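Notes on consecutive records. When two proteins share a document, each keeps its own sequence and its own token line. Never mix them. Below: protein one.
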Amino acid sequence: MDDPMNSNIEDLFNPLIRRRKVLIPGKGDVPDYSNGTKVTFHFKTEASYSDDDNELDMIVIDDSKSSNKPMELFIGKQFKFPLWEEWIKHMRLGELSQLSLDWLLCQDVYPLLSKSYRNFATPHDHNHDHDDPARRSHCCGMAKQTGTGHKDLDELINKPPKRLRFTIEIIRVENPNDVDKEIWLMNEKEMQENIPILQCEGNELFAAKKFEDASYKYRKALAILEQLMTREKPGDQDWLNYDLAKIPLLSNLSQCELYLQQYYNAIRHTDEVLEKDSKNIKALYRRAKAHSAVWNVEQARKDFQRVSELDQTLQPMIKQHLIELDHQVKRKTQEDMQLLKGKLF
């Protein structure tokens, strides 16, 4: 059965979309833009203050190619500009097309869409935006009162053009089964199902010595667990179960970080494991190695000794580590003395 809401949107926008100017037709058939499909596209927005789209009068507002940051949207996930989503659903891969709209049709949407895109493209410039009411508002009137934080967008609102001309180019279409789905797009069941999948993929990548890729999988699984924990009351059984499920992921991640020489990250993540399980031998051993690598000698020695106490079968190996640690300290002391001697004499 057709969704009446979708039908209304199509009836509203299709006459406008049929007016688009196709500059490059693209390849193949129009893809199946089912809900959850990820579309990556470049866009350009120009403003015109004249009665027609005279190229000489056009003022560029945004150009994702200049920013080297294409925009992404997930079909059916309430994109800020519904017309763009409907327009994209009519486009082929590689298609480049243009559409001009009267300012009144996009004045309540485009300035805030542009602001969100700019925050995505250059996030370091907008650390204050989470407290900015203009970011939360969907009303141009509110944006007019508070400002967008961008001079040119504020000028666009306060001195509106006749029309905006949009140019969109589809560069990638990924169906829902192929998308590395963003966590915020997952429902609770999908989150729960993805954790063991990500852990297994991480283990396979680790076995193939692809430590950076394995780290990504473990980090994403941990982020999902963190998100699930926010839905539970701290201390409740489900919350505790999610918290304990983090241990093998943190442990595996710390091992990747040792191979990648990210020693301080390894220390931080093994700390997290040991806060939950103070007798975790793997975490103690990995933290000892990380401390040793960054010359936290006493912390390394303490962790090595604790491993030896917890598992006596590991004592010969730990003894070798401690001997090597002492040798490293002696070599470092001698090097420092030679360096100091050179400066004094």
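Protein two starts on the next line and is unrelated to protein one.
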Amino acid sequence: MTEKEIYDALDCGEPPQELLEWAKENLGEDPETKCQIISDFRDMIYARGECTPHRTDDAFLLRFLRARHFIIERAHRLLVNYYDFREVNPQYCQNIDLTTLKKIGADQVILVPPYRDGNGRRMMQYRIGSWDPEKHSLDEMFQATIATVEMALIEPRAQILGGICLFDLAGLSMQQAWYMTPNVAHKMVQIMVTSFPIRIHALHIVNQSYVFDIIFNIFKPFLNDSMKERIFFHGDNMESLHKHVDPKYLPERYGGIHPDYNYEYWVEICRQNKQVVNEMKELGYRDSELEEKE
């Protein structure tokens, strides 16, 4: 990879033809019916009145349709879940300062590489063993996760292709596991599966220990069979991970070729895109660092 390929800016423009063809084959996004489906979806939102979206333009509604294979009923349920989550959990996604969340990246607890994997998908990495609950609250972890998802979803590529997650559990302690309550597990599943228009294609677990078994038993009741099939356990066997993710798209610590790119890199990528900045403001986010420069 060249430096230009590594620093992969968000592409918020119209998807290229080959990606649209992939979406037609895999998501049911047919150009001949897309406009009518969006219109029918919008009519359903108004007719049922189960939520009041802050936007109902085509581009926004497309995120929910793509996430549910253009099945209107399922897309509507996802939309309602999305706004219900935001209403019930305002501490995670309203009036959040993105600048304050950068400190999580500095400690390399959450990382978003500034490049896509071999399938064109973004990757989010968690190093739970590096998490100090007294330094970074659970609220902040959720805030950073949701902000990352919201920024990624502005990119049509991410809407179409989805993403993958990697959980590194090296150093995970019982002290950290203590925070993983059923309520926390439920909220994490809401973010990754039921309440945001993102499709997680795979969740890779590495360096897990007996402590993880305790946590996973808490999560199991909230996972359906489809999600369970997308979870892969690798332990310290990086060759097992490489069967799913080519090493050239991984950090050196996982047998790859890249340095660690923390959360701050992701924020900087997003800051370069005016559409992302504006849409995050519409959602109630702020960026005190950018505000000071202005």
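For the record: Residues 92-292 form a domain with the Phosphatidylinositol Transfer Protein Sec14p fold (CATH 3.40.525.10).
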